[in-house]
Queue: 3 jobs
Job 1
Amino acid sequence: MLLTRVLGGVGRVMIAAGVLILLFVIYQLWGTGLRTAAAQNQLRDEFRARQEQVQPATTAPPAETTTTTTPPTTLEDPNAPAPTLAPPTPAGEIAPVRPGEPLGTIRIDTIGVDFQIVEGVDLNWLQDGPGHFPGTPFPGQAGNAALAGHRTTWAAPFNRIDELAPGDTITVETLQGLFTYAVVAQPGATEAEPVGHRIITPTQTEILDQPTDAGVNTITLMACHPKFSAAQRIVVVAELVGNPAPTTAKSVESEAASDTATELLTESEGLVGGDPDARSHAIGWSLLAAGIWLVTYLIARRWSWRRVGKWVAYTAGAAIFTVPLFLAFESINQLLPAGY
């Protein structure tokens, strides 16, 4: 009898542990997206508010001078260089963006990307959306603007960048206007098999370097590779179509974060997790969730002779239990190297 009770108890514990692990996996793949979606809504509102502040001081260009998805061609002289197109240029000053604040919107129609970009590549910011490396120029400006994003969690903004092919367009909207980039072919690409990305090691920080050729302005997208791993990095590079916008000043906070941004590229734990400050939150929310479920079990057991009452207790308890469990998973996720 005692052995049966012990085995039964162990079995129930293992079943409960299996269910919790399954729920945690579900949280990582889809639950993190809920938090990112909420952050994206807030960032979008903040960016629109900034646009309204800048708009009165912005000189809008004629419709024919806006950037296009592909450089125009000249039939009269096929060797003539394509004319450059000037993006909108604010007449007034733009307030420097600080880490965690929105600096623009990135859209890639071919792979369904439409996200607000945040300043900074710390894990806290990458949970809100694609992050801009503070040590690089802002998108739309001269030089190489570099962005990082998740591929499998936190709404996975760069989940499908491996599908990008040469010529695909990347559109970025900032306070300085709308800018279009065209994906360039990577080494090894052929007409039969065009490749718009390359795989590098985490130590190849040259992807953050600035172009040496005058007039070459690019945007670099970077994410962990392969999916569910941080062993390598996948990189996509696109060239700006048209003239760059004037370079604007960076905030003191962004300048200070420039040195650590490169370290986050080379250290897996920097981009994907390992925040020790989340330990206390993980323990607290886990204990609260366990306490709620224990109370639910005791109430349901008291009403065990009433079939309806028992399931009412479990249903109500499960609804309350979900909230601290979600917050516990969020804290645990920050402790583990799992936010790829």
Job 2
Amino acid sequence: MNSAVIGLGFGDEGKGLVTEYLCSKSTNPLVVRYSGGQQAGHTVVKDGVRHIFSNFGSGTLSGIPTYWSKFCTVDPIAVTNELHILQKKGITPKLYIDYKCPITTPYDAFHNQACDKFNGTCGVGVGTTIAREENHYSLLIEDLRNKTAFHMKLDLIGRYYGMHLDLRKFLKRVEEMLHHECIVFVNHPLPWINKDNFVLEGSQGLLLDQNIGFFPHVSRGNTGTKNILSIFGDYEFRNLDLYLVTRAYQTRHGNGPMTNEDLPHNIKLDPDETNITNAHQGPFRRSLLDIDLLRYALYKDEGINKVLRKTLVITCLDHIKNEYRFTHKGDIVNCRDEEDFIIQVSFLLDLEENVLVSESPYSNKIQKF
């Protein structure tokens, strides 16, 4: 059975955790990244190995290959950097990259870091790459097959940004990526590969979708069902198992609106938290869960209602042992205990029939409620 993992919030919900869990329950699966690019930071812990996935799917520690769809950007430097890290951990990944994927260049990343500091950006050039593509200065993976055209396009991208950078490292990593046995470039529809199940892994949450979130503090792309529908078609899409993921509280990286920050809370700060304050995104923020924002996200993504089987996943319950509260219609709702919290949240989201819960960071701790 094919499944898709979608974050309901501003990202950092635990999509990697859920993806690894679904891979462990699937027969002969393939992880499909359907949005974003190298800005993802999905933490997976398995058999004593901990890794933050950005350029490979979150089933990689279980030996599951990844398909990088045309909706995702590719940074050759980031891909090869992560590949080296995985190999040092004793992991041999497999990555299939669609020929239609846009390439992130050093120009895109530099411009992103210099000019887009206030929208919660990761600073890795995903948004600037997509914007450049929309302005017809296109550079796709398929362009790597013709060195003359590739270098001409790369030169024009430098002129587009009005800058000149030393690209020797970038060009070296392009060559490494092109010839590495772990990476395969494909020009086929998704079903070309002999796999029994697809696990579609999202990048950021619905509240960062460019058509759902709060502009300009959004991701340039679609983090919900739009790309999934394009990949599968209507019939297969309706028969997906959809996993809708939220932490037991709100989080947000950097600037942009987030509710309930004026309310004091006792949410535990995980000492192993992957999502930390950094120079480009800014502070990592936390507040009480807001049911109204989650309901808004669910309503705005029209495709979600077309799917027959939906499961709510509530992660990081271990962080709210002293904070079983959330807000609904502007009021604070106090819950008796963890069970009452889960029951009320799932009921108010109209997702009480199928609920999974977990404590971070282990996928083997995900269990049916």
Job 3
Amino acid sequence: MRVALVHDYLVQYGGAERVLESLCEIFPDAPVYTLIYDKDSTSGAFDNRKIRTSWLQKIPLARSHHRLFPILMPMAIESFDLGDFNLVISDSNSFAKGILTKPETLHICYCHTPIRYGWDDSHKYIKEFHYSALTKKFVPFMMNYIRLWDKISDRRPDRYIANSNFVAKRIKKYYSRSSEIIYPPVDIKKYYITKNISDYFLMVGRLLPYKRFDIAIEAFNRIEIPLKIIGEGPEIKRLKKKARSNIEFLGRLNDKQIKDYYAKCRALIFPQEEDFGIVALEAMASGRPVIAFRGGGALETIEEEKTGVFFNEQTPESLMEAVKNFNQASFNPEAIRQHALGFDKEIFKEKIEQFIERAWKEFENS
């Protein structure tokens, strides 16, 4: 069987890229088709893969500012020729699912979300990204085009896998398609538990508006407790201006450094509504509890009062109350890690292989 993997764009190393990494382990000979590839931004995870990029790769600024080019991405993803493959697996939170395949090719989409900024987050997207006033006038027209294309292309996959119940509902709402839920992988063995807990709270992730780092910064500015932030992104300058001296920006770190910060933090702060949220499970794999907003995928991964606590509103005040009431001694690190084991990478790979086997038999019979 000839297999191809398709990914939106390889310009960072986050949850979607960890899924792709596991798919690459299942299919070591499969080439990876992606709109844009920036080798330096993916932590070396795909250095030994056959990476095939679109014509967007040659456009100036595309690798460093890919968010400027969503209007070109539908055309770019459709430019790939996958006619030689029997099985195509798209790992998608935006455009990869729109790949064109032949009727005799089985296309399975592992969907992280329908395009967030095209559907329920479109108005928030316009407000939160700091475009000029002139640009903001044209963005709604661009969104109409993207929504139309997204709705047309949602028919292209033969089967959908959702990364959470939360996303399965969104797939049903916006695409009217059913999906099977297989949670994303966490490489549990990479993380460890230590008794040497430090005095800081931790945040990890891309510095993007919807991640709500701003809430945490305002909350920790007021309570003056140490907060360390790992990650880079377009919001970094704005967030640094807001932060007081008790908040430290550590930038992009290597795997070993991140593991150490996870293991020694008092708790992970998780104020965003994520489709799933792998960083929360990475913290739990390190035996550390999570203080999370009560919404999105966190409701499926965090057991209240066992592996973390929730706050109910995305406001500094609500987060402050949760941090002040947080009792580190009430959590058992071994029990937290045991919970995280249910999301281990090997379980993910086993479930994906079983799903593909079933889907292929049904596809052949049809």
